[in-house]
Every structure is written in C-alpha cells, then in structure tokens.
Design brief:
alpha+beta; two-stranded antiparallel ribbon; about 35% helix; 3 helices
Length: about 80
C-alpha cells in the first residue's frame, strides 16, 4: 500500500493527498483518506492501470469497503510533511 500511495501522488496530478492508517487495536483494519482535485481526478484515478492492478491484487484481502463522499471544511498540513 505504501508503494501504491507514493506512486499515485507522484504520477497523478489530480491526486492531492492519500493517507492510510491502521487501527492500533486491530492492525488489519485499514482506513484511507483520499483527496482529489475534483470529481474528474477521482474518476481518472479509478481507471489507471496501476489502480486496477492494486484492486485486483488486494480483492481477496478486503473484507469490507465503505466509501464516504465528503465536503472539505478545513484541511491543513505542514509543507513537506512525511511520516514514516
């Protein structure tokens, strides 16, 4: 997942940020937070070959999936922030 996220952000201009976090109490429970420039960028992301490969590779690992469509209210980050 780490490699995929890095690729999406680097290669796709419409992918503004992607975050993946694991629940400390249940490390196999992963939440991702994705920010796209617009709806077209999100649609384009879903059609690129490396996303389709990721989806097909992980389809047996994903036990549930819930997509929430949100409206940004306040989004801030330190410039160049990268957590390891």
């Amino acid at each position: 997942m780490k490699e995929e996220i890095e690729t999406y952000v680097r290669v796709e201009p419409g992918v503004l940020s992607l975050y993946a976090v694991a629940d400390k109490a249940n490390p196999t429970s992963i939440t991702t937070f994705e920010i796209y420039a617009n709806e077209d960028a999100y649609t384009a992301h879903r059609e690129i070959p490396h996303f389709k490969k990721y989806k097909s590779t992980t389809k047996e690992m994903v036990k549930s999936l819930e997509l929430l469509n949100t409206v940004p209210i306040a989004l801030e980050a330190k410039k160049g922030l990268r957590l390891e």
